[in-house]
Amino acid sequence: MRHKGIQLQLVEGIPAKLSALLEQGELDIAIMSSADNFPERFDVTPLFRERFMLAFPAGHRLSQYDAIPIAAIDGEIYLRRVNCEYWDYLTDLCDAQGVNTIVSYSSEREDWIQNLVAGGLGICFIPEYSAVVPGLQVRPVAEPEVTREVCLVTVTGRRFSPAVSTFVGAVKSYGWATLPSRSH
């Protein structure tokens, strides 16, 4: 809002897709997280850390927990957010804990998944600072806690236009660390 002449185009995707777009010059910057390390050809500036939460409908049995142990979701119907960069990590974590979920629906649309969860059709993992639809309940994942670090990612050595430099400066100077934890 302070820089009226700058136009942004937002592109959603998993880290592999966003990384490829960065390398090809199709994106100037990416704000993303990865369960794996970023390639050395990128400059990575950590912005903030957030927990993963479990989202479920009002009245669900998981509402009894202040923090939900992974073991508690065994047998649950899971609604998959296709662009979740932690899908493989979370699946491996569940497998290691002997937890089986039943994936019944997948979508690239975050709002569709959340509305299906709010409507009682299953549960899903969701990052802590995500906007949530009305009727969705969330609790942090516990035993083990799962977190992600959201980073500003650029290609090492690539020169920025004045507009991109202004945006990068604004992102880096924002008070990310002061975000409060979401109450449930």
From TrEMBL:
Coiled coil: none annotated. InterPro entries: LysR_subst-bd. It comes from the Bacteria. Residues 2-173 form the LysR substrate-binding domain. It holds the Pfam family LysR_substrate. Keywords: DNA-binding, Transcription, Transcription regulation. One of its GO terms (molecular function) is DNA binding. PANTHER family: HTH-TYPE TRANSCRIPTIONAL REGULATOR CYNR (PTHR30346:SF28), TRANSCRIPTIONAL DUAL REGULATOR HCAR-RELATED (PTHR30346). Belongs to the LysR transcriptional regulatory family. This is DNA-binding transcriptional LysR family regulator.
